[in-house]
Automatic annotation (TrEMBL), chain A:
Gene3D superfamilies: Nitrile hydratase alpha /Thiocyanate hydrolase gamma. InterPro entries: CN_Hdrase_a/SCN_Hdrase_g_sf, CN_Hdrtase_a/SCN_Hdrlase_g. GO terms for molecular function: nitrile hydratase activity; transition metal ion binding. This is Nitrile hydratase, alpha chain. Its EC number is 4.2.1.84. Keywords: Lyase, Metal-binding. Residues 15-189 form the Nitrile hydratase alpha/Thiocyanate hydrolase gamma domain. Pfam families: NHase_alpha.
Length: 200, 97
């Protein structure tokens, strides 16, 4: 649902904000600061967590044991956030994350959820026909790979630790981070080593 | 006793048949200014202990189905936040007219 907000909705927001300002509940400065800090969260954080886990077995163990602690180890504040579970893909199992009830998503490490994640079609279909959804997006999983779909909730968020692609041996953390897309962090895509890539 | 109604609530969309064969739209635009303002407001009100995520959900999940399906994502949030602020007397209906 990425249609623009109706003018009457924008007006309703303005009226609510005006009432809250008049009552001294919120200030424009507080709102602007909150918005700026939310805008600054980016899936690059999650991508870096994955890259580090690929390189550092101890960090990998931490990530799988306690995602929040692993995020905090990257300097991300997770105060007040629900637990973060990390789903480890294997050659035999692929994970896909959805929030069937709404849009729960580990925003501190992935940023705003994209429109498709919040869409009715994704929420409905990801649990019934995950392979079809993935195939429509260009990821055809062989039948030999199980697909496990996990529902994110208000009380427990999930992200995926995908498989490190072949052809990335010797890569640095920055290089590895660059191939972990936002979508790969919830299992909607797979990290791909560029064709003909040479390790650095 | 009558049989319990086993029809899932509107928001309980996992597996909902009505969206089968509906392509998932891949719109990569970040939330617009309206959405980002609503989002920031929700966080701020939570920080000030004036509402919780569970209350936000209850407000969203009480929206009648036809409106739930017609409103955009952040319009549903705004509807819920407004309802909560009125219920709690943080703002009055007169102020929102």
């Amino acid at each position: 649902m990425s249609a623009p907000a109706r003018p009457e909705s924008i007006a309703a927001l303005d009226r609510l904000l005006e009432a809250l300002r008049t009552r001294g509940v919120v200030t424009d400065e507080e709102l602007a600061a909150r918005q700026a800090s939310t805008d600054s969260a980016s899936p690059e954080t999650g991508a870096r967590m994955v890259a580090r886990a690929w390189l550092d077995p101890e960090y990998r163990a931490l990530l799988l044991r306690d995602g929040k602690a692993a995020a905090e180890a990257m300097g991300v504040s997770m105060a007040g956030a629900p637990p973060l579970g990390v789903l480890e893909d294997t050659p035999a199992r692929h994970h896909l994350v959805v929030c069937t009830l709404c849009s729960c998503y580990p925003r501190a490490v992935l940023g705003y959820p994209p429109h498709w994640y919040k869409s009715f079609a994704y929420r409905a279909r990801a649990v019934r026909e995950p392979r079809a959804v993935l195939a429509e997006w260009g990821t055809a999983l062989p039948d030999s790979v199980d697909v496990r779909v996990v529902d994110s909730t208000a009380d427990y968020r999930w992200m995926v630790l995908p498989l490190r692609p072949a052809g990335t041996e010797g890569w640095s953390e920055d290089q590895l981070t660059s191939i972990v897309s936002r979508d790969a962090l919830v299992g909607a895509a797979l990290p791909q080593a560029p064709q003909g890539a040479v390790g650095g | 006793m009558s049989e319990p109604d086993r029809t899932p609530a509107t928001h309980d969309m996992g597996g909902a048949q009505r969206f089968r064969c509906t392509p998932v739209e891949r719109d990569e635009e970040p939330p617009d200014e309206f959405g980002r303002r609503v989002d920031a407001l929700r966080q701020l009100l939570a920080q000030k202990k004036l509402m919780t995520v569970d209350e936000l959900r209850r407000g969203i999940e009480s929206i009648p189905e036809d409106e739930y399906l017609a409103l955009t994502y952040y319009e549903r949030w705004l509807r819920s936040i407004t309802t909560l602020m009125l219920e709690k007397g943080v703002v009055s209906p007169e102020e929102l007219r």
